[in-house]
Amino acid sequence: MRSFPMLMLVAALTLSVPAFAQEAPATGSASGTTAETTATTAATADMNGTPAPLASTQYKAFERGDGMLSLSLGTMVPLGFYDPSGATFLPANSDPGFAFSLSYAGFLNDKWALAGDLSGGFIGTVNDRRLFVAPLSLRAIRVFPLGAFTIAPTAGLGLTITALDNDKHVDALAKVGSSLLWRASTDMSYSLNIFGDVVPQFYADSTQNRVGFFMEATLSVSYHL
Amino acid sequence: MKTMIRRALFVALAISAMALISCAEGPTGIFASVAAETPVNKTMTPAIEFASPTFVAHLGTTWYSGMGVLWQKADSGATQWTKASVSLPGVSASDILFADSGAVTGSSLYVAFSDVTTRTSLGVYYTTDGTTWTHIDGFPATTEYLRRIMAADNGQIFAVTADERADSTTAEAYSIYYLNLGAFASSGAAVTSNAAIGLPTSVAWDGTNYIFTAGYSLVTGTASSLSVLSTTPGNLYSGVCAYVSGQVIISSRNGYLYRYTGTTLTDTAGPFENSLGKTYSFSAPTYIGAAPDPILVVGTNRIPRSSSDIPPAGGYLEFDATSFSSSMTPTVDHGLTASAVNFDTSLDARSVSGMPYFAVQNKLFAMTDGYGLWSDTYSGTADHTNGWDWWIRE
Asked: ipTM higher than 0.90?
């Protein structure tokens, strides 16, 4: 008789295992899987063919510890320059150029991530000089998953290395923009990125100070780590 | 894996920043420079974009330039250069004719042509209308090769020849001739088959005498009686131009400028160097005495001084030539004839073989080695620096 309570406990545990299994989070992949985007686990039938009760769980497209390594190619569009001494906005005097970047985004939780960018852009001026602009930034990203898509507005700060002929300069950088990601598979995403770069450039000769405005429009392929 | 990537990113960022944070600032801000650019190629003739002009001349209402073949452009209203239609008597019309050197005197354009098809020097021709060409017969002699023709400030035309040599170990001997009554005549025994002088490259008229630069020598005198000047320091001279009355300015391949007053090299300025301390090699200087201020410009070229000494190309240097002194220095921003940004986008770091100035249209040309023909016109308007309209590519 003393074994009856133990028997009942074992029976209860046995019956509840399928339910626990259904509620277990999809921890097999740090990035989650698109195939598991349904909010409930698949229903299973018991031995008698009676549907087991469904257990719901909150699917998250991104989780703490997720990471994305992205390679981007596209165009860098010079928008113009602001002359603080004359309080005037000057034309860009240059044509859209080539832009590239290598980025890594690490997720702090399911909503926020921090990203680092190694970017570069080549711009041709009206006189065919080559202006090289390399924004190096640390960005905060807020993600808004929408099914297979994710909208990810971002803002960050960093440095910009600029070079023209033999002159080079390092300046501060403010970057804002957004990405639209499409989760093509469990490992890969493709995205469209639009970023605006604001680069205040200061010199010892203050008459040479200008603020540069650039837009990066790139397409990315991202690998989910 | 993730940790490694993060570390790699941060290390790359740090290295990039540290490597470039100490870059020295140029005279113009990078963004400021781009914002201040003015189009220099808008009216360019694409076919001569990378030409190496050998001369520019103005005859009537037309500009002429030797850029391989002879090119021409109307001096008013036209922007594009076109190949001049040159038909020389006795030369096949299908042959390609190079205009090696040229100069204008009076109402005639003199050009030394060579036939590229047959690889022969054709001698000197002249025209008064750009259409009909006449050969100057009997020149050069069959034992001489025509090297170039050139004109002094007063319009006197000279021709330089080199003697035929048995082989390349024999020193080259040069002769100078002057144009006299439609024919070339010897400029004297001292400059006939002279192997002690270098190739005469430039001539100026100081109001009394002509002064030639000829390698390590200066040659001076009247057109019919030139002699080698023996009181010079023996520098490697490259060019000469007239300065104020009775004086000329001489440039050298070693970055020096001299003022010659008829008897001695009174002032020596230089050597002029680039920002890395490398000495320039100068082309012939040009003095512009017109308003607003007297200006001296001199091109820098990359013609090797030796097999191991290739001078730096820095476009051109400009000086306020109100007074020539041994302590004069070139402008930093080229603000006398252009602006820092205009210079950066035109002739900076280019090899300039000559900068002829034509008072007839207040136009200064820059002949580059492989970077086309450039011009800067003094219009007197206040739009640009000192009334100069800045450099544009022809």
From this structure: no
